[in-house]
Design goal:
Helix 7 links the parallel strand 5 and strand 6. The protein has a 6-stranded parallel sheet with strand order 1-11-10-9-12-13, sandwiched between helices. Strands 6-5-4-7-8 form a 5-stranded parallel sheet, with helices on both faces. Strands 2-3-14 form a 3-stranded antiparallel sheet. It is built from 17 helices and 14 strands. It is globular. Helix 10 packs across helix 11. The protein folds into 3 domains: 202 residues, Rossmann fold, CATH 3.40.50.1980; 144 residues, 3-Layer(aba) Sandwich (Rossmann fold); 31 residues, no CATH class. Keywords: Amino-acid biosynthesis, Histidine biosynthesis, Metal-binding, NAD, Oxidoreductase, Zinc. It comes from Acetobacterium bakii. Its cofactor is Zn(2+). One of its GO terms (cellular component) is cytosol.
């Protein structure tokens, strides 16, 4: 990890830059896959699954028997934990529900907003070496709380043609309606354009590798997407009283995700900063199974910034706009108003980031790479759409129609003007 004494001349853009630009060859390969799926449907999906996932499928859709077999294979203790997590996730997201509303600003005038769920949504869940049942719960439950009628999950099969049992068990617990054995860019293409087996969706959510992310970019416009998720990141603001063992463990909880993950400590104490660096490398060697991934992450993208005071710490954090922000400081709730840009805020020494990943209830699908400056965690609102409501009586329109006509003609739009005027012609 790099220890840096932060000041106003510190070049954050250069320091935090990750070489993750989209490469032309990846985009070209994705476009070819999308073109193939649009043209050949199921046959293209089966071809790409065999070529890329090394799996020869006999059917794309996961059957009820396969789901039940997977569910029965998962230990009951883990099922209980997932069920409890699902309850927490549902309870939190139910508070995000919006309702249709109207008001009457004048006699004869009704205005408002009509809230409806997106009808059909596709959920991408990573597979292969990855196994993320938590992603299933976090992405599916808000959709169902919103009222989505058709929730379609795609996830890549193993070489044996099967889906990881915990992923299918999580889908059953959440209540996913359809599941298909598809991964990569071909799965995104199938969700966007459909095939003989798969009906197209209106929106695609869920994380994936660079091919999945690129495919989501390419189909945006045909369908909506949630976000383009980058490598994970955590930023911890710590004062001199913070526990270096806790801080190091929390930094590593993100570093083990990906070699490009970015663990950052911002502290007012150089002594603590040095202790955390020492503790990070100690824990890598003593405790971690994914030590090679974690070590490369902290070596290449791990930073400890020493700042003058907590105000400077929050200013730096807001500039970085981290996916996860931990506050290991005295009375963190008193500093909440200083946070302007963060995906999720974890307050106090007993609120570690994995609590949010798995169990507490708030969504773990969060804006990365500084996008917390303008975007939010995945939520019920991502699965809903709004329509404006307008209702004028004859008298109410008569009071304003001449103003509307004048405004329309100022833009050169006579037909707009006449559309209101004709209602009051003798």
């Amino acid at each position: 990890m790099k220890l840096i004494n932060y000041n106003k001349n510190t070049n954050l853009i250069k320091l935090l830059k990750r070489n993750e630009e989209e490469q032309d060859d990846i985009r070209n390969a994705v476009l070819e896959i999308i073109k193939g799926v649009k043209k050949d449907g199921n046959s293209a999906l089966l071809y790409y699954t065999k070529a890329l996932d090394k799996c020869e499928l006999t059917h794309l859709q996961v059957t009820e028997e396969e789901i039940q077999e997977a569910y029965d294979a998962v230990p009951e203790s883990l099922l209980d934990i997932m069920r409890e997590a699902a309850i927490n996730i549902r309870s939190f997201h139910e508070k995000q529900l919006e309702k249709t509303w109207t008001y009457a600003p004048l006699p004869g005038v009704i205005l408002g907003q009509h809230i409806t769920p997106i009808e059909r949504v596709g959920l991408y869940v990573p597979g292969g070496k990855a196994n993320y049942p938590s992603t299933v719960l976090m992405d599916a439950i808000p959709a169902l709380v919103a009222g989505v009628q058709s929730l379609v999950m795609v996830t890549p099969p193993g070489r044996d043609g099967k889906i990881n049992p915990t992923i299918l068990a999580a889908a059953k617990i959440a209540g996913v309606h359809e599941i298909y054995k598809l991964g990569g860019a071909q799965a995104i293409a199938a969700l966007a354009y459909g095939s003989e087996t798969i009906k197209p969706v209106n929106k695609i959510v869920g994380p994936g590798n660079i091919y999945v992310a690129t495919a989501k970019k390419e189909v945006f416009g045909k369908v909506d997407i949630d976000m383009i998720a980058g490598p994970s990141e955590v930023l911890i603001i710590a004062d001199e009283n913070a526990n270096p063992v806790y801080a190091a463990a929390d930094l590593l909880s993100q570093a083990e995700h990906d070699e490009l993950a970015m663990p950052i400590l911002v502290t007012t104490s150089q002594v603590l900063g040095e202790q955390v660096i020492e503790e990070v490398y100690r824990q890598i060697e003593e405790d971690l199974n994914r030590k090679l991934i974690a070590k490369k992450s902290v070596d290449d993208f791990g930073f400890v910034f020493i700042v003058k005071n907590l105000d400077e710490a929050f200013s730096l954090s807001n500039e970085i706009a981290p996916e996860h922000l931990e506050l290991l400081i005295e009375n963190p709730m008193n500093s909440l108003e200083k946070v302007k840009n963060a995906g999720a805020i974890f307050m106090g020494p007993y609120t570690p980031e994995p609590l949010g990943d798995y169990f507490a209830g708030p969504n773990h699908t969060l804006p990365t790479s500084g996008t917390a400056k303008f975007s939010s965690p995945l939520g019920v609102y991502d699965y809903m759409k709004k329509s404006s409501i307008l209702s004028y009586s004859q008298d109410a329109l008569e009071n304003v129609y001449e103003k509307i006509a004048t405004f329309a003609r100022s833009e050169g739009l006579d037909a707009h003007a006449k559309a209101v005027e004709r209602r009051f012609e003798k």
